[in-house]
Amino acid sequence: MPEQKMKIMEEAFSDFTGHMCRAGFTNSISNEPLSERQQSHLAACLQAVPFSQTVSITPASPSVLVGKTVQLRAAITISEGAGSFTWKSADNAIATVNTAGLVTGVAAGKVQITATDSETNLSATVELTVKPVSVESVSIKPDSATVEKGATVRLAANVLPANASNKKVTWASKNPEFATIDQSGLATGVAAGVATIEIVSEDGSHKATASLQVTESPDA
């Protein structure tokens, strides 16, 4: 009679206390449960197997621009598939996160994002950096204007992109003897001549100029 071979398959589940619990043994070739004697012999040899449970989030060091989104993903080492996670932002004023782990940058800064596994209550946290949207260009509208002596004209700063985090500019007149300008962009004619009006982005990286012609008042 040919020798009978047996392959033992163990069924196990986690009790989430740090051990794997054995539920029974099966002969995978015949798909029949082992006898009580076989079970007892095996059970006498086997002890609970300790294991570790960890939750991880990827990417590990995420960043996102203000107004943009970044997808975070969480996984737990003992779960089959992706698991079910609850997401939380430590500061919604800096970034928000939805139930799928999609983060939206709100304001420049750093914030902790946490994913908690709903089955084990294990969690992981990453620090997310929300980067400001940099200014790419500035201009003055209109780029040339005329104003009478003693009168005023309003100029406007155009900062791009429209969602730049800091759209503040500083106004200045290169020729205050002809015209002055305040920080709201309101220019005042002082004397007949041409004044160069300049704006500079607050970080100093971009500047633009406009020409302001000051004419004598007809009543002068």
UniProtKB/TrEMBL annotation:
<protein>
    <submittedName>
        <fullName>Ig-like domain-containing protein</fullName>
    </submittedName>
</protein>
<dbReference type="Pfam" id="PF02368">
    <property type="entry name" value="Big_2"/>
</dbReference>
<feature type="domain" description="BIG2">
    <location>
        <begin position="51"/>
        <end position="127"/>
    </location>
</feature>
<dbReference type="InterPro" id="IPR003343">
    <property type="entry name" value="Big_2"/>
</dbReference>
<feature type="domain" description="BIG2">
    <location>
        <begin position="134"/>
        <end position="211"/>
    </location>
</feature>
<dbReference type="InterPro" id="IPR008964">
    <property type="entry name" value="Invasin/intimin_cell_adhesion"/>
</dbReference>
